[in-house]
Specification:
Elements (H helix, E strand, L loop, with lengths): L8 H51 L9 H11 L4 E7 L5 E6 L9 H6 L6 E8 L2 E10 L2 H51 L13 H36 L9 H18 L3 E7 L3 H8 L1 H19 L5 E5 L4 E7 L2 H18 L10 E7 L5 H13 L22 H11 L1 H4 L17 E10 L4 E12 L2 E3 L1 H10 L3 H16 L2 E2 L3 E4 L8 H14 L6 E6 H6 L1 H13 L3 E7 L16 E4 L1 H5 L4 H16 L3 E4 L5 H9 L4 E2 L8 E2 H4 L9 E2 L14
Parallel strand pairs: 10-13, 12-20, 13-14, 14-15, 15-16, 16-17, 17-18
Antiparallel strand pairs: 1-2, 1-4, 3-4, 5-7, 5-8, 6-7, 9-10, 9-18, 9-19, 10-11
Helix pairs in contact: 1-2, 1-4, 4-5, 5-19, 7-8, 8-9, 14-15
Protein name: EAL domain-containing protein
Pfam family, one: EAL
InterPro entries: Cyclic-di-GMP_PDE-like, EAL_dom, EAL_sf, GGDEF_dom, HAMP_dom, LapD_MoxY_N, LapD_MoxY_peri_C, Nucleotide_cyclase
């Protein structure tokens, strides 16, 4: 376990108990040995004293002998037993009369043990009398050899027993502590889950009083968050359905259409995309209602909705609206090639569905390419006119959806174009050299737009890519749409990400957001490549944020969670953009570890309406309650920015604040300047909003 990340409580307790146990048993071992040492020293003292008294009494009758032969013999007999270090007889003037000495030394006893537990046998004295007169004194000192042997054997036995007790105590302590602290794992999992927006109840209630209190408190907190989240999401979803959905078909209504139309116009202007409108009129609805009843009319509408949904499912960035009882509108950002396919598919399905049951035909359908400068009323008026005159062909010559448009390339031409865009990624040079990709500057352009917080500081910078080839500039959504249709989306994503990484090698001290394609986050081979190349160049890149579309996230929630989890492991933050565009349930976000939510631009442009403000405010409160920051895009004027700040929205983005800028105008391309600090003052401030 890394010390930098900290030691777990369990590890710290294990270490503490192990240290205390080892210290306690070591002290006990030492005390036991020293007690034995003291005991042996007392025994040596007593032994020497007894020997002195006994020998003194034994040699007293022979003090008158010449040279004390018998006394010496008795002394030698006692000394030769080997239990004495020295025996000496002194006269009254402390002069040695005779003595015996045994050399020091112990066999098989380590010197360190002798030095650590030193035995010092005392010299014991006893007076020797000759009748009533003191003849001298005898001094006896016991030998420490046998005592050391006894002490050494005793120490080894005690050490073995102590080690056994220590091991048993540590093992028992480990399992006891493991059982006591086991609930901490559940508490830790729950705390980590809350940090990643996973609000789960811990069903394992510990026996320990203090831990039980912690678990109950966490469960209560999670339950309150879940209840608050549920209530607020229900309120937001209910309001969304009332305001933006048709009650019969659950399709977006006319108000949602107006909001989305404005959003698509802005997006089409920013990306160079084409906006198409399909108007479908259910011409037999009145006759069916009159002849068969409203129930039959409802079934007629339901059948039509199911039929048209099947036709639009294969396309991206397309939405179907019910604008009146008998009329549907389909708005889409797509290429002219896709628009022709959609138009043909709708006409064919209407033709197949028409029969004698429908006196006025199953439906009438017209399609038009919207002029980005015209209003919704003008576009719908042209479609209404064509419906009224039963023109079942594409729009007038000025707005025809044909291959004569500026970007109406054939399928073969698109394949050639895309192969040029992905040529570098297909050459397998990316992982070898990310820095040497200057040739891509001729076909890719990197654009940047800052997102500022409510303190007017830089939150992060979003990156965009524009495609160009020779003198032609391509619509970004159109390029990706055609790449997906031609099964080249993964290669195109690799080329785009590699080019952005190449450009970002010069940027430091700023968060940069990269948009990940709708299908890319569910493509395992692409995600493996993405995280591998990021890992290789992580030290050279700034902190990254991946932006993923809400519709892409909802297409497969499980694979989206896996993508987010891998990104989080590498320190990459996640933004969920165009939130609310699908008018679906918001509950899925509580189980996704996302950092930012970028609202759909339609809600922001509609903030002057009270119900839109209430909806945005509710979503903001929901996200703040689970630790997610809210970003408002498409902030185009001072009124919108004021509403956003009043609702405590965390980040603002839009041309009304800082317009999209070319990378080369923000980051210097001077040779050798590789550590550019990306600051907010490098961007040009919009004249629409003054500081």
């Amino acid at each position: 376990m890394s010390i930098k990340k900290g030691l777990s409580l369990k590890t710290q307790l294990y270490l503490l108990i192990a240290c205390l146990t080892i210290f306690t048993f070591s002290a006990s071992l030492y005390n036991n040995i020293t007690s034995m040492q003291t005991y042996l020293e007392d025994q040596l003292s007593s032994h020497a004293q007894d020997a002195a008294h006994s020998l003194g009494l034994s040699i007293s009758p022979y003090m008158d002998e010449e040279e004390l032969v018998i006394a010496k013999t008795m002394t030698n007999a006692l000394f030769d037993s080997g239990y004495y270090q020295s025996i000496a007889f002194y006269d009254l003037n402390d002069k040695i009369i005779f003595s015996r000495t045994n050399p020091h030394g112990t066999q098989h006893i380590p010197n360190w043990f002798i030095k650590l537990f030193l035995l010092s046998p005392p010299v014991m004295t006893s007076e020797v009398s000759n009748g009533w007169v003191i003849a001298g004194k005898i001094k006896v000192q016991s030998h420490s050899g046998s005592a050391y042997n006894t002490l050494w054997d005793h120490s080894k036995n005690i050490l073995w027993i102590t080690c056994m007790q220590l091991c048993i105590a540590l093992i028992a302590g480990f399992f006891i502590l493991k059982a006591v602290l086991y609930p901490l794992k559940g508490i830790e999992r729950q705390a980590n889950a809350v940090a990643t927006k996973q609000f789960e109840i811990n069903s394992e209630i510990p026996y320990t009083t203090e831990l039980r209190a912690v678990v109950n408190a966490l469960n209560k907190m999670v339950e309150n968050i879940r209840q608050t989240f549920h209530e607020q999401t229900q309120l937001a979803e209910s309001l969304s359905k009332q305001v933006y959905l048709d009650s019969q078909t659950d399709l977006p209504n006319r108000r949602a259409l107006l909001k989305r139309f404005d959003s698509y116009i802005v997006e089409a202007n920013e990306t160079g995309s084409a906006l198409y409108m399909n108007l479908i009129s259910m011409t037999s609805l009145k006759q069916i209602n009159d002849s068969e009843g409203y129930s039959a009319g409802d079934n007629y509408i339901t059948e039509a909705v199911n039929l048209f949904k099947k036709q639009i499912t294969p396309f991206n960035q397309i939405t179907m609206f019910r604008v009146s009882g008998s009329e549907f509108i389909i708005l889409s950002l797509m290429s002219s090639y896709e628009a022709e396919q959609l138009n043909s598919s709708l006409n064919e399905s209407i033709s197949l569905a028409s029969n004698t049951q429908y006196p006025q035909g199953f439906a009438k359908h017209v399609a038009t390419k919207v002029d980005l400068s015209e209003s919704f009323s003008c576009a719908i008026q042209r479609c209404d006119t064509e419906i009224a005159t039963q023109q079942y062909y594409l729009n007038t010559q000025n707005n025809q959806i044909t291959a004569s448009d500026s970007q109406g390339h054939s399928r073969i031409k698109w394949l050639e174009i895309l192969k040029q865009f992905i040529a570098y990624s297909s050459s397998n040079n990316i992982q070898r050299n990310l820095e040497n990709m200057h040739e891509l500057d001729s076909i890719f352009e990197l654009m940047l737009q800052p997102i500022i917080n409510n303190q007017k500081d830089l939150m992060y910078v979003e990156s965009f890519l524009r495609f160009k080839l020779e003198d032609e500039v391509f619509s970004t959504p159109e390029v990706f749409a055609m790449a997906e249709r031609l099964h080249l989306s993964s290669e195109l994503e690799q080329a785009v990400v590699s080019f952005i990484f190449h450009k970002l090698l010069k940027v430091k001290q700023a968060k940069i957001a990269i948009n990940i394609g709708n299908s890319a986050i569910h493509d395992e081979s692409f995600t493996n490549w993405l995280f591998q190349i990021y890992q290789q160049h992580k030290a050279q890149l700034p902190q990254l944020i991946f932006e993923i579309n809400e519709s892409a996230a909802m297409a497969s929630v499980e694979s989206t969670k896996q993508f987010i989890s891998r990104a989080k492991q590498m320190g990459i933050e996640i933004t969920l953009e165009r939130f609310g565009a699908n008018l679906s349930s918001f509950s899925y976000i509580k189980n996704m570890d996302i950092d930012y939510i970028k609202l759909d631009g339609g809600y922001i442009r509609d903030l002057e309406e009270a119900d839109s403000r209430f909806f945005v405010q509710t979503v903001t409160q929901i996200c703040h309650g689970i630790g997610i920051k809210i970003i408002a895009p498409h902030v185009e004027n001072i009124t919108i920015s004021t509403h956003c700040l009043q609702m405590n929205i965390d980040g603002l983005q839009g041309n009304g604040l800082y317009p999209v800028s070319h990378y080369n105008t923000i980051v210097s391309s001077k040779e050798g300047e590789i550590d550019t600090i990306l600051l907010l003052n490098r961007f040009n401030t919009s004249t629409q909003i003054k500081e």
